[in-house]
Amino acid sequence: MNILLKNTLWIAVAVLGASAVSGIALNRGEPINALWFITAALCVYAIGYRFYAAWIAATVLMVDETRATPAERLENGSDFVPTNKWIVFGHHFAAIAGPGPLVGPTLAAQFGYLPGTLWILFGAVLGGCVQDMVTLFLSTRRDAKSLGQMARDELGALGGTAALIATFAIMIILIAVLGLVVVNAMKHSPWATFTVSATIPIAMIVGVYMRYIRVGQVLEASALGVVLLLLAVAGGRVVDESATLRVLFDHEGLTLAWWVMAYGFAAAILPVWLLLAPRDYLSTYMKLGTITLLAVAIILLQPDVKMPAITQFVDGTGPIFGGKLFPFVFITIACGAISGFHALIASGTTPKLLTNERDIRMIGYGGMLLESFVAIMAMIAATVLDPGVFFAINSSAGVVGKEAIDAVAKISSWGYPVTVEQMQFLAQQMGEATLFARTGGAPSLAVGMASIFGSAFGQGMLALWYHFAIMFEAIFILTTLDAGTRVGRFMLQDILGNKWAAMGQTSWLPSVIFTSAVVVSAWGYFLYIGVIDPNGGVNILWPLFGIANQMLAAIALCVATGILVKSDKGKFAFITGAPLLWLIIITSTAAWQKLTSDDIRIGFLAAANDLSSKLAAGLLPPDKAIVAPKLIFNFQLDAVLTVFFVCLLWLIVFDMVRVCVRYLMGKPVPALTESPHIPSRLVEDWVRD
Amino acid sequence: MFKSIKFFWQAIRQLSGDDAYERYLIHYAQHHSADGEPLSKKAFFKQWQDEKWRGVKRCC
Question: Rounded distance, CA A632 to CA A675, Å?
């Protein structure tokens, strides 16, 4: 293409993107079409990818396509395998995209559509994508070492230990909050409970099929599993309509929480082939299929976004979680904008498959762009609902009142009219008894998705679509839950193995049972508290998860910034330094407010003190007085955890700054551990596609 | 047209691991043909699955 045409095209993309972004930013009071969001996102991504990412790859990282990658140099046929870039992209995306980008934007929609959307777009292009790409590059240049190993080698022992602790802590809190999301979606819903429970035997059938009946026929087995899953969605209706069957699947949140814990424990102990691996196949296909379907439906249907651009809840009084727009929107939307967890995938797993360094931009930066796009679609699905309905589903009973009539009065008084009849009709359409106070994000996302799918592909099946969406979320939440419990178990066995060698054997049964029990009790505790907390639990757990995840991102960015300075590229250190600075600001501010705020919905200590004084004065109703001591302890524990996270963060930041300053002053620092340049043998004969 | 369908199908097989054993046999023939017989499909599949789930493989 000639240069003039190319330039004109990019100018057109820039103009279109700028007008779409300003269109959604400046629109007030009128519904705005969801297509504007898609347009704005695609243009921002295209420009970020074409210019910023290309500049980083060429000028800052200086990727070298003639240099052999670890996949080529260390090829062993099992984990180090040079692989086609599209396949690597597929693996990478399937690994990084989980339930996070679906839940976070849904919760953050309480501020209106604008703050979350802008953070998803610009956070990804300037922060998250850069983090993923740079980490992938650094790991590729270091024999596919893990983030923790790189932190230890390049900064010092402190950084490595911090990365290990942060990973473990995030895993525990993430699993608890995801467990809570599933529990809230199944609470008193026989249909959802049946469908979600059916995914477990279905996964086992698929596992046995792949292992014994038709060995290694992964696609055949998965196709069988997908058919069975769809049958389970439809079968839920039969259960729901049968008076004898429905009582078997109609449970309180707490009962379901115990079941989720029992499941997590079983999944960590059972062999991988029986449950984890087949479940992961099913969830990956469901995930990719549903996300594609959602994108197609949004483009076909072009729904109007009804949520205002900005709501009054930016002042910190939001019903879904307490806290002002700054910093809490940046904490709530972690995955989708910037997620530290991705650095674990981008170091270790993906670089072992990478054939050529020049694909780092497409896989690292591009993979995260796609995840950010998923977050934008979740934001659309949440905001196409009537705001009154959205708040009625997502506000916990502790905030708006237990009775439907109180809840609608309260929500309507905020300026988002909703009626009991409207909610009843909607619940009936979705095949549920009630949709009030179904916190956690999954039910409201499912209602949003069902209404989009219903309008695009036929209204008659709303209840089926709703439960399909619930099943789709639950299946990969449970995959994250058992994969996470298992990784937690391995990490714990690794740590204990340093002291008692026997505990380190991953196949020694007593050690397996003991460490699995420890990991399950750790997240089970937070899940239990989240379920008995009348304010919904999500209000406490999600910000804690956000802080932990952003802290892991800060560790990854510290490693990257330190290495850039040590490689004499200090003048470019802003590419990771600027997002790092922003993360330090938001996590520290959020942590500070969580500790010191007088508002009992924000400050952990304020909430603990408030509850103790009420308990002492006998002001609590008996059912609340029983759980109050547990909640008080939990608030104090959360405060301690927050302090711990922030101290860890600052320690690593100081360590990184210390290394950089010493380097710039010419003092000795840990040497760069980049592997030597070996020319690739694949470049000449490798047919590029 | 036929070519792109074939590429797409192969990509799906490779992404899911459907052809993992076939690829292993090719790799084995190229690099380890001196070390004796390759693993059976069943043994290979067991090892492949166990290896796959040893580290952080799924994210939030």
Answer: 52
Hunting for tokens 């290309």 — which residue is that?
Answer: A54
Classify residue A258 as exposed, middle or buried by CB count within 10 Å of its CB (0-12, 13-18, 19+).
middle
Whether residue A678 lies inside any domain: the answer is: no
CA gap A532, A148 in Å, rounded: 36
Handedness of CA A603, A109, A336, A466 (dihedral sign): positive
**Is the pTM above the cut of 0.90?**
yes
Q: Do A83 and B53 touch (CB under 8 A)?
A: no
Question: Residues of B with CB below 8 A from A210's CB?
Answer: 45
Distance of alpha carbon A683 from alpha carbon A687, whole angstroms: 8
For B9-33, what is each residue's pLDDT tens digit? 988 898 888 888 988 888 888 888 8
pLDDT band at A688 (very low <50, low <70, confident <90, very high): very low
- Per-residue pLDDT, A44: 97
Please tell me which residue of chain B has the smallest CA distance to A477.
Answer: B60
| Minimal Cβ distance to B57: which of A218, A219, A349 | A349
Q: Where are the alpha helices (DSSP H) in B1-60?
A: 2-16, 20-31, 41-52
| Residue A224 belongs to some domain of the structure | no
B49: nearest CA partner in chain A: A273
Interchain pair B56, A487: CB under 8 A:
yes
- Asked if pLDDT for residue A535 goes beyond 80, the answer is no
CB A276 within 8 A of CB A483: yes
Q: Tell me the β-bridge partners of A354.
A: A83
H helix or E strand, kind and range, residue A313: none
Angle between helices A404-413 and A387-394 (to 10 degrees): 130
Block residue for tokens 């070492």: A145
CATH assignment at residue A410? 1.20.1740.10
| Residues 6 or more apart whose Cβ sits within 8 Å of residue A2 | none
Residue A243, amino acid: A
Query: Does B16 sit within 8 Å of A345, measured CB to CB?
Result: no
- Which pLDDT score is estimated for A684? 60
The reply to whether A239 falls in a domain is no
**Is there a contact between A79 and B51 if contact means CB atoms under 8 Å apart?**
yes
| B37 or A63, which is more confident | A63
| Mean pLDDT of all residues in A524-528 | 96
Q: Which residue of A has its CA nearest to B52?
A: A79
Which tokens hold the place of A406? 């109180």
Closest by CA to A541, choosing from A649, A471, A605, A634, is A634
Q: Which residues, in sequence order, are bridge partners of residue A679? A: A67
Query: Taking a C-beta distance cutoff of 8 angstroms, is the pair A97, A396 a contact?
Result: no
Residue pair A567/A527 in contact by the 8 Å Cβ criterion: no
Sole residue written with tokens 């983090």: A131
Q: Name which of A75, A86, A97 is nearest B11 (Cβ-Cβ).
A: A86
Dist. CA A391–CA A163, nearest whole Å: 37
- pLDDT class for A634, splitting at 50, 70, 90? very high
In single-letter form, the type of residue at position A471 comes to M
A203 domain-assigned: no
Average pLDDT over residues A134-151: 95
Q: How far is B28 from chain A (nearest CA, A)?
A: 8
Per the rule left: phi > 0, alpha: psi between -120 and 50, beta: everything else, A216 is left
In this prediction, residue A482 has a pLDDT band, given cuts at 50, 70 and 90, of confident
Total domain count, chain A: 1
Plot region of A177 (φ>0 → left; ψ -120 to 50 → alpha; else → beta): alpha
Among the partner residues B11, B13, B53, nearest to A277 by beta-carbon distance: B53
Instruction: State residue A685's pLDDT score.
Output: 54
Give the structural domain span for A421. Answer: 3-188+251-664
- For residue A183, give the nearest of A260, A235, A119, A238 by alpha carbon: A260
| Those residues with Cβ within 8 angstroms of residue A204's Cβ, 6 or more apart along the chain or in another chain | A274, A275, A278
**pLDDT one-digit tens code per residue, A149-201:** 999 999 988 888 888 888 888 889 989 999 999 999 999 999 999 999 999 99
